[in-house]
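Notes, p. 3: input format for complexes.
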Amino acid sequence: MTDVIRVSADDPDPAAIARAGDCLRRGGLVAFPTETVYGLGVNALDRAAVQRLFAAKQRPASDPLIVHVGSFESIAPLVSHVPQGARRLAEHFWPGPLTLVFPRSAQVPGEVTAGLPSVAVRVPAHPVARALIHAAAVPVAAPSANLFSRPSPTQASHVIDDLDGLIDLVVDGGPTAIGLESTVVDLTSDPPVVLRPGAVTIEMLQQVIHVQMLKGFGTRDSERGTRDGDREIDVSTEGSPSAGPVRLPSPGMLEKHYSPRATLTLYEGEAHSALESLLRAARAALAEQKSVGVIAAEEDRPAFEPLESRDTLFLRLIGSRDEPAAVASRLYTTMRELDAAGADVILVHGFPDHGLWAAVQDRLRRAAAGRIVRK
Ligand code: TXA
Ligand code: MG
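Output follows (375 residues plus magnesium ion):
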């Protein structure tokens, strides 16, 4: 049985938090809200509990977990060395949606780090997450609280949909604000490398330290400089676009992730041609009696008017192209809604590539798993 306790997001009931903290300390699996997505927490120092967590999520043991702590000072027992830049990044972005990868100490079980010599650490900002970490009084390893390869949960009902009966407790603090997972920066390489874009954007990081984007992420190599309006986002402060580090993605990043059940195709490039191409695909799929989910921007509305009467077309105008934060916060819910509606295919009109859009685009490209039409 999975219990759900509802708490206020800003001022959670101490008794509820004490119960959840207790459950964590005793080796339980507790889902809780962070400002990014819901995490599935476990005592990071309890090997058996960590193994139960991997089993519940059906997560491959090769995919390392993020350890959540209450402050920069609390990372000391987990890491063997604090690389340059860590403190400055922490001062700017912790607590918040930034995960930093450090060389790990011997205290961190290999189950948490998938055997890697490094450990990922984050100090979350959400009051419920902070209170829970404090109450548990142990470092809390927490992946996103979804079944492996499902979109990350942004509300408690998503956690229940995936993990009911498999975990002990869900602390329901309402919907999460950001809606996409944290930015991951690997501080064990020089210069540090952004492994996963998130709400702490590349541009924000570049203001504080010199970082590079993992080559291949958030970029359209073949199209560099050919489009107006879009800024390139992966260039290091002085490097040329092609001079980024060539390096394997972190474990877990090779997997097909963030996927809805329906087949998702992403249409990107020149806005008008991409939209035309998407519309053709939508008409073709409808003609084949398929249910078609579409994710597009508010601004695309007129293009869909001729199709709006079709009852097997599920149109989700997810937000304005001027509001990346709104689109980010709705992305995973929208994918889950389209799955629940029974969409056979999901067609997505892509977004720009700068700032927070880089994170949106990164998740869309992973969900598309190679089904990307570039116009
Ligand atoms: O926002 C978030 O980061 C959420 C909340 C709950 O904090 N957590 C989350 O965890 O998204 P998860 O497990 O779904 O993604 C963690 C990713 C791993 O897939 C892996 O790619 C990377 O972080 N990671 C973890 N440890 C790492 C390490 N030692 N080296 C490189 N990458 C690592
Ligand atoms: Mg995840």
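The domain at 227-374 is CATH 3.40.50.11030 (Rossmann fold).
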